[in-house]
Each structure stands twice: as structure tokens, then as C-alpha cells.
Design a protein that fits this description.
Length: 380
């Protein structure tokens, strides 16, 4: 299901990767650290329902200034975010003062400037703490009254009418006049993604487990079971957090059914220290009955995973993930965001991830597979 994908992706990130404790939950001890880890999880669950509120009563800063200050090398927003509801409310309601084409990528999008000068990307009907994805919220936009009066000539030239519906096709690799995105009358449902601050320029990287997209030609990882050993000898995967970020992302992509992670972004000049930023998640939530296990190749070929990721995944089994996702998306303007079959599919895929990690621990032992996040990392 393409509809509302980006909102779902942010909700999944908020649910799965929101807290930062790193103690093994398979230990059934009652240590103070383990009890605090459980309390942190319960606090996370209690705070999932983010209500979109219009005011920031405790500060004179704009919502855009607050969101820009949140960004640091290892997260786009912090664990404690009391202003989150107000920022997402602003994204969903602030007046659009300029609209232009969005050039990059394969999918249709528009670059909007909201009141206060904040850039956002609007994606019509196409659908996650890792805290590694920009904030996303659903929004209804009136193309006739909100977009066309402030649109640039380039964007305006791609508008047309199909029946009684206002449509546009924009500019992108796959954008065609014969395949426009159409509103229901004048109103289009889509998602708004907050633009990262300009002081954090991005660098694009080829994903080491990317596909060739050539018929009859396999990527090396698809036939070489020792491929991960070669990756571990290559910068930036030979040390630092990047390889573990790749494996976290593989888990995330498998849950949402995204087999199209051919590139990824990080902050520039980071020498492998910054996070892998989850920007392009468009090909997610297709067929809920299809599980593409090869998405997990970084996990089952390297057989390592962060302790904190393992903990979170265990806490979210037995239907907790599905329930948490419903809570996280309940107040979104375009709720309901995911259908029941897709929610069920995410829960089932979680069990497959846990089984894959267990296969690794059975073969190599938990000490080799479960990696403490805070240790100096060297994969050679």
C-alpha cells in the first residue's frame, strides 16, 4: 500500500527505536539497570500518542527553530521532545507561501515553503528511537487555493484537470504528463517531510547490499555468503557505527517491505561517525503477504546486531508493535494510516527478524552476535 507511507515510516521509527538503554532483556535478573530499562520502555509506550497542538507556551522560539536545534550527528530529534506535537501541527497547518517542483528522485514531489520560511517536501499519496528519519506528518492540501496561487511557473506548467479533479505531474525521473497525481476534486491527501537544516549538508553513499537492477546480473552479496567479510575491510564499515547502522536499517526495511535501499545518506565529512539517515522509503508497504527475506542479508550474513536493537525488538513482540503503531498514528491528520493486513504483516515480520538473530546466536554465540553500542567498534 503506497498511501501514507512516509507517515507510517516515521511512526515505526518512533515506536521501535525511541529509547536508548542497552541491557539484555533475555536476562531474567532483577537488577536495578534491568528494571530501569523496563521502566524506560513503559514511558515510551505511554508517550506514543503525540497530539498535534497549536501552541508552544513555554518558549518564544518558532517551531522551525526548535526542530533545527534538535539535529546532531547521531539523531534528527532527541528522545525527550515535548514540543513534537506543536512542530507537527505547524507542518500540517502552516500557510504555504511558495510551491516549486522537487527535482531529485524517482517519485513525484513538490517543494513547499511554509510560513516562517521552513522548507518541506510534499508527497501526494505515496506512503517510522532510531530517530534517523526527518519528521513526517499527514496533510490535506487544496491544490487550487493553497498551491496554484504560490506555485512557480515550472510547477504551474505541470497542472491539468482530469474530469472534475485538479492534477499535477511535477518533475522527476518517472514523472509523466500521462500519469499525473490527482486530487479528490481540489483536495489532495499526502505527507509533509521537514527539510533538514542547511547547516547539515548530506552525502550520498552506495549501499553495500544494493541490488544491480539488471536482469540476469546478481550483486556479489546475492551469491557470496562471505560477502560481509569483505565489507568489514572497507571504510567506513571497518570501524565505527556505520555497519551496525546498516544492519539496523535492514531490520527496519524488512519490517516495512522496502527492498529498494540502493543508496543512503549521511552528514558530510563525518568519517563514518554520523548516522545513516533514512530518507528514501517510498517503495514500502506494497503486498502485505510478501516477505522479501533478502532484505535481511546484512543481518544474516554479518550475524551482528546492536544489543539495544535486540532489546527493543523483543519488547515489541506478541502484538505490542501493532498496538504501538496504532497509538503512534492515531492523531495524525490522515489517520487511519495503515490497514489491518499491513499491521499484521509488520508483527509477523518481527518474528522472522527475531528468528534470524536466534539462528546467529545458536551458531556463533550471543557474545559474538549481540554488540554493545557504546564500545569502540572494530570489525576487522
Amino acid at each position: 500500500m503506497k498511501l501514507k507511507q512516509r507517515v507510517v515510516l516515521l511512526a515505526i521509527l518512533l515506536v521501535i527505536f525511541i529509547f536508548t538503554k542497552v541491557f539484555l532483556i533475555d536476562n531474567l535478573d532483577t537488577s536495578a539497570a534491568n528494571r530501569e530499562d523496563q521502566r524506560a520502555f513503559h514511558r515510551m509506550m505511554a508517550g506514543l500518542r503525540v497530539e498535534l497542538v497549536p501552541k508552544l507556551d513555554h518558549t518564544l522560539q518558532s517551531p522551525w527553530e526548535i526542530a533545527a536545534q534538535w539535529v546532531v550527528p547521531r539523531e534528527v530529534y532527541p528522545e525527550e521532545t515535548p514540543e513534537l506535537g506543536a512542530i507537527m501541527h505547524a507542518m500540517a497547518t502552516k500557510k504555504i507561501i511558495k510551491a516549486d517542483v522537487g527535482y531529485k528522485g524517482t517519485q513525484l514531489k513538490a517543494l513547499l515553503i511554509l510560513e516562517g520560511g521552513q522548507k518541506v517536501v510534499f508527497k501526494p499519496k505515496r506512503i517510522l528511537g532510531f530517530r534517523r528519519a526527518p519528521l513526517v506528518v499527514g496533510r490535506f492540501v487544496n491544490l487550487r487555493t493553497e498551491i496554484k496561487p504560490v506555485a512557480t511557473e515550472q510547477l504551474l506548467s505541470t497542472f491539468l484537470t482530469v474530469g472534475n479533479n485538479t492534477c499535477f505531474y511535477g518533475k522527476c525521473y518517472y514523472c509523466r504528463e500521462t500519469e499525473p497525481a490527482c486530487a479528490d476534486g481540489d483536495t489532495m491527501e499526502g505527507s509533509v517531510t521537514l527539510w533538514l537544516p542547511d547547516v547539515w549538508p548530506l552525502q550520498k553513499h552506495r549501499h553495500p547490499w544494493g541490488r544491480t537492477y539488471r536482469e540476469g546480473k546478481l550483486a556479489r552479496w546475492e551469491y557470496d555468503e562471505s560477502y560481509c567479510d569483505a565489507v568489514k575491510k572497507t571504510s567506513p564499515y571497518d570501524s565505527g557505527p556505520r555497519l551496525l547502522d546498516i544492519i539496523d536499517t535492514a531490520v527496519f526495511d524488512y519490517l516495512i517491505g522496502n527492498a529498494d535501499r540502493h543508496h543512503y545518506e549521511s552528514f558530510q565529512d563525518d568519517e563514518g561517525a554520523s548516522m545513516l539517515i533514512l530518507l528514501d522509503n517510498a517503495k514500502s508497504f506494497g503486498n502485505p503477504s510478501l516477505d522479501e527475506r533478502s532484505i535481511l542479508a546484512p543481518l544474516y550474513q554479518c550475524c551482528i546486531i546492536r544489543v539495544s536493537t535486540w532489546n527493543r525488538l523483543n519488547y515489541l513482540k506478541n502484538g505490542v508493535l501493532k498496538s504501538a503503531l496504532k497509538s503512534a498514528m492515531a492523531h495524525d491528520p490522515i489517520s487511519p494510516v495503515l490497514s489491518e493486513p499491513h499491521l499484521d504483516a509488520v508483527d509477523q515480520r518481527l518474528l522472522s527478524v527475531l528468528a534470524t538473530v536466534k539462528q546467529c546466536t545458536d551458531q556463533f554465540g550471543a557474545d559474538a552476535v549481540l554488540v554493545e553500542d557504546r564500545m569502540p567498534l572494530s570489525h576487522l
